[in-house]
């Protein structure tokens, strides 16, 4: 096999392959033939012969001795081009790269199907948690209704610490970077891109069609404040960055796919998933609910998922067989419901001038747009402004936004919206 990348996950993968005793016997047969890296001078934590190393990754993906290419360099380029070149040379692919699959899955899987090779990606979502193989195989009898995940460990760590310590976002982000959970550029995690990549992969598997990445409604956690987390607790919720893909109940065949900070009821199974852990709740018929929980990242955990794909491939190669369940047969793109038509509950916090009739004005405007309220409470004061918190029933996003526009209309210049979050 050819290994592209010997960083965190590449090192974990090599460590498992070099220490096969006590693991599945097939692992003994997996030899690392070449290793592609950026720098030949870097000290390496695994003991691999120096002559295996090269910076010429193209020579690995076209090497006739290599039958499986394990792509662990990450990012879009050169990962995309190397994967396509490897497929063209009839190599099977194992990858942990959710970004390249979410954004270029169409051309990669089309090429793989034409070449008759597999592209396996268990490590790309939920790290070590088995979720790709269950969706492809074990849950195949079910009509999946909804997949709800906490699938970004960095943001879950940040939100958990904001909740338990009352610490501010910037302070916890700096700590997460120091501890190595968050990258130097935390954008992909904090702004929800990583979770959007992952939910697009899960939605595609759960609902049997490709997903246009740009259609996913995405919001990160930068604007989540300790004030909102505290109010969430008072109201019986915790705040989580949820990635959700579900069948739209009102349209046949259309999907809702979104990522955003969400109020989760305290008794919901995902509410107690804390720290860097990930969990994915799958709901289907006839199974009901099943939840997958575990380490969503890290050297050993992610490598465990990479090696599980290698086991699938090597068992097929050893017996010269094919397994249609491992491939991708999607030919069409799913239709995604426009955000304006989504129906969810909302939490909204207003800062208003403390004058008679303010709460009445809020209630009247919501009523004009058919937005039914579960609760409306004046909680306290902030800088002489009254703080009013509203939780709605399920409402159509467009009606909710129209009501907010009316609330902030000409006659109410002293009403500001401090925050808006969805409620599960
Ligand atoms: N880390 C984690 O916990 C998880 C990671 N993943 C995914 O796994 C993949 C790998 O991540 P991770 O191991 O953390 O990444 P690292 O940054 O630790 O390692 C990347 C490796 O790829 C090599 N590399 C990067 N770019 C090039 C290039 N242009 N040419 C040659 N070599 C290159 C680097 O070489 P060199 O060593 O010389 O710098 C390094 O060995 C990513 O897709 C990531 O999203 C998925 C789940 C969890
Ligand atoms: N950055 C990701 C880890 C890899 O998928 C996370 O924080 O979950
Ligand atoms: Na996984």
UniProtKB/TrEMBL annotation:
Pathway: Amino-acid biosynthesis; L-methionine biosynthesis via de novo pathway; L-homoserine from L-aspartate: step 3/3; Amino-acid biosynthesis; L-threonine biosynthesis; L-threonine from L-aspartate: step 3/5. CDD domains: ACT_HSDH-Hom (cd04881). It catalyses: L-homoserine + NADP(+) = L-aspartate 4-semialdehyde + NADPH + H(+). It is an enzyme of class 1 (oxidoreductase). InterPro entries: ACT-like_dom_sf (IPR045865), ACT_dom (IPR002912), Asp/hSer_DH_NAD-bd (IPR005106), HDH (IPR016204), HDH_cat (IPR001342), HDH_CS (IPR019811), NAD(P)-bd_dom_sf (IPR036291). Pfam families: ACT (PF01842), Homoserine_dh (PF00742), NAD_binding_3 (PF03447). Its EC number is 1.1.1.3. Keywords: Amino-acid biosynthesis, Methionine biosynthesis, NADP, Oxidoreductase, Threonine biosynthesis. Residues 347-424 form the ACT domain. Its cofactor is a metal cation. Coiled coil: none annotated. It comes from the Bacteria. SUPFAM superfamilies: ACT-like (SSF55021), Glyceraldehyde-3-phosphate dehydrogenase-like, C-terminal domain (SSF55347), NAD(P)-binding Rossmann-fold domains (SSF51735). Belongs to the homoserine dehydrogenase family. This is Homoserine dehydrogenase. It comes from Spirulina subsalsa FACHB-351.
């Amino acid at each position: 096999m050819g290994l592209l990348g010997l960083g965190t996950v590449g090192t974990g993968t090599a460590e498992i392959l070099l220490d096969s005793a006590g693991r599945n016997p097939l692992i003994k047969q997996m030899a690392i033939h070449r290793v592609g890296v950026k720098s030949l001078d870097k000290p390496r934590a695994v003991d691999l012969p120096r002559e295996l190393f090269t910076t010429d990754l193209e020579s690995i993906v076209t090497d006739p001795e290599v039958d499986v290419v394990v792509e662990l360099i990450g990012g879009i380029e050169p990962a995309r081009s190397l994967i396509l070149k490897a497929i063209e040379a009839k190599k099977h692919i194992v990858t942990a790269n959710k970004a390249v699959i979410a954004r270029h899955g169409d051309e990669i899987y089309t090429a793989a199907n034409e070449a008759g090779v597999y592209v396996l990606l268990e490590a790309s979502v939920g790290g070590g948690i088995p979720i790709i193989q269950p969706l492809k195989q074990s849950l195949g009898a079910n009509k999946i209704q909804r997949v709800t995940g906490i699938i970004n460990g960095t943001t879950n760590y940040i939100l958990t610490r904001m909740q338990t310590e009352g610490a501010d976002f910037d302070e916890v982000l700096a700590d997460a970077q120091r501890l190595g959970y968050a990258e130097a550029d935390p954008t992909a995690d904090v702004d929800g891109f990583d979770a959007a990549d992952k939910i697009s992969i899960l939605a595609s598997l759960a609902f049997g069609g490709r997903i246009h990445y740009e259609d996913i409604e995405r919001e990160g956690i930068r604007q989540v404040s300790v004030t909102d987390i505290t109010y969430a607790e008072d109201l019986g919720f915790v705040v989580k960055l949820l990635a959700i893909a579900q069948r739209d109940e009102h349209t046949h065949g259309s999907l809702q796919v979104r990522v955003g900070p969400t109020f989760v009821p305290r008794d919901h199974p995902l509410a107690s998933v804390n720290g860097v852990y990930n969990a994915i709740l799958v709901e289907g018929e006839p199974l009901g609910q099943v939840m997958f929980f575990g380490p969503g990242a890290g050297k050993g955990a992610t490598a465990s998922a990479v090696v599980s794909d290698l086991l699938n491939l090597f068992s097929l190669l050893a017996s010269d067989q094919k397994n249609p369940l491992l491939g991708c047969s999607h030919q069409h793109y799913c239709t995604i419901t426009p955000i304006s038509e989504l129906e969810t509950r909302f939490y909204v916090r207003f800062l208003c001038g403390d004058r008679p009739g303010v709460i009445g004005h809020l209630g009247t405007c919501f009523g004009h747009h058919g937005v039914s309220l579960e609760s409306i409470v004046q909680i306290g004061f902030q800088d002489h402004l009254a703080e009013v918190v509203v939780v709605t029933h399920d409402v159509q996003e467009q009606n909710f936004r129209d009501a907010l526009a009316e609330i902030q209309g000409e006659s109410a210049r002293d009403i500001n919206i401090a925050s808006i979050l969805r409620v599960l």
